[in-house]
């Protein structure tokens, strides 16, 4: 079951550097929220705070809260590994494990979390996850082939299958189509539209048309002055953001006059 995310007064630091300043927003369950803004505005950093992935960088810390279904992900008793099971991540470049087969790639996260799974359950999970990622019909006869043998677009869908195999509540996508051709991009966009029936999805994209096509709500981040941290400028329904944003900076960015 997908969950709503409430972010309250979030500051993200890398050492002494404040990368994201005072962001508050609500991300609705079973919807697609797009994060847009110029390079360096903190949107990918913010995305990674939603499953504590930013913590892999030394010196990273946050102030504020990220609450999923009443649970603050940053509470002292919360295990970041469990957070990452609930909140899956798909990265900019497809990253299947090259030494693993297609089937093993799907099961990788599951086995990391729970090493005991029966053969029949594993086969069912592989098929279900690949169907969920619209990839089953293309790979069902070669599940023992390396994941790296697939095309770029197929590899990215394999990574999505791997993410949903652990049954997360939220799926984060950091520019999932930036390394893909237009046909593969369309396949991922169609998939996102289907996945939001079951998951809360947050996507970072530099592609304005993509944000307009796939998202229900859009959040615009910007750098507050030279060298200043990223700020959330405004957030609204996507149709409103693209037709009549309330901030001039948003309008300038969306229309291509800035960033």
Question: What would your notes on this structure say?
Answer:
- This protein has helices at residues 43-49, 80-86, 102-113, 119-132, 136-139, 152-165, 182-195, 208-214, 238-243, 248-254, and strands spanning 5-14, 17-27, 32-36, 60-68, 71-72, 87-90, 170-174, 200-204, 217-223, 230-237.
- It is an alpha/beta fold and 259 residues long.
- A hairpin with a 6-residue loop joins strand 9 and strand 10.
List its traits.
nucleotide-binding, 10 helices, globular, AAA+_ATPase, 10 strands, phosphate transmembrane transporter activity, 6-stranded mixed sheet, 259 residues, Rossmann fold, ATP-binding, alpha/beta, ATP hydrolysis activity, 4-stranded antiparallel sheet
